[in-house]
Automatic annotation (TrEMBL):
Gene from which the chain derives: mnmA
Domain (tRNA-specific 2-thiouridylase MnmA-like C-terminal): residue spans on this chain: 278-351
Family designation: Belongs to the MnmA/TRMU family.
Predominant location: cytoplasm
Amino-acid positions noted as binding ATP in the UniProt annotation, renumbered to this chain: 8-15, 34, 127
Catalytic activity: S-sulfanyl-L-cysteinyl-[protein] + uridine(34) in tRNA + AH2 + ATP = 2-thiouridine(34) in tRNA + L-cysteinyl-[protein] + A + AMP + diphosphate + H(+)
Active site: 103, 196
Taxon lineage: Bacteria, Bacillati, Actinomycetota, Actinomycetes, Streptosporangiales
Function of the protein: Catalyzes the 2-thiolation of uridine at the wobble position (U34) of tRNA, leading to the formation of s(2)U34.
PANTHER family (alphabetical): MITOCHONDRIAL TRNA-SPECIFIC 2-THIOURIDYLASE 1, TRNA 5-METHYLAMINOMETHYL-2-THIOURIDYLATE -METHYLTRANSFERASE
Domain tRNA-specific 2-thiouridylase MnmA-like central span(s) in chain numbering: 205-270
Enzyme class, UniProt record, top EC level: transferase
Keywords attached to this entry: ATP-binding, Cytoplasm, Disulfide bond, Nucleotide-binding, RNA-binding, Transferase, tRNA processing, tRNA-binding
Protein name as it appears in the record: tRNA-specific 2-thiouridylase MnmA
Amino acid sequence: MTLRVLAAMSGGVDSAVAAARAAEAGHDVTGVHMALSSNPQSYRTGARGCCTLEDSRDARRAADVIGIPFYVWDLAERFHEDVVEDFVSEYAAGRTPNPCLRCNEKIKFAALLDKAMALGFDAVCTGHYARLGGDGVLRRGVDGGKDQSYVLAVCTPEQLAHAMFPLGDTTKAGIRAEAARRGLQVADKPDSHDICFIADGDTRAFLAERLGEAPGPIVDADGNRVGDHDGAYAYTVGQRKGLRLGRPAPDGRARYVLDISPVTNTVTVGPREALDVRVITAERPVWLGPEPSGPIGCEVQLRAHGEVYGCVAEPSADGLTITLDAPARGVAPGQAAVLYEGDRVLGSATIAETARVPA
């Protein structure tokens, strides 16, 4: 069946090959580049970005080679509100957000998809490394090192019903080779890294500019003041470097951020083993199938490309309780907990609280 497909083209190799595959499959494909900054020079430049003028030009050249219409859509205001401001407010609240996950949730599969549907398109095609079956089941991509099912798990079944991920059955090396065969100039273009809207990669300075300096204490688990900070928002659970502590631990071992309290503007540090977490409380669950009626045994991934843990997940009135089979370290509120059964995504939720031992 021929579909009208809107191909989101970032200017990178993945989205270019995804658009080419959709067109080769016989679909009526239109390419679109999302302009996510009202001032592209303020976002990342060169090979490290995904929101630059260079990327827009690369996407247009790829569309010309593929032979599909191409447009640039201005989504800068929506991106700033839903991704950039969310990023800042989450850090201000002592949480650690994932802006790429939020971009998928709010921009690519909300703002972009809604506009596509209003214009009569049947699906949005992206270059994510994930597999989507005809039954709506979302699975990991075959390239474990590039799998992006984690950042797609926030999408609802209704959104996934209008999504296409043509790259999920191929490795990154295979995609680059295919791009070269197709004559796409982006075949060797480096992948983007870090956060696209932080121009120099300095997250601490970016947050300080928007939230201002807010000095406060750094304390150990016993409440002893061991240092000072200029803003608790600049820290994340599990962080070891850049703590600038005034005195070493009595045992001489490295200390890690254990907790961030925006209410008291306090950062708590301690030994690595104090980061061990066995119980996670998560909120705002999204299920990609029927919600379980009781506890289920499954696996959970707690950060993009992070380790997978066996667990028991139990829905509750407030969200979801996840009890890990083995402790995890550095689990930060604000990140996503994505549940899997093998390579199949069951659902996701946002981490709200953690505990060291089961109740």
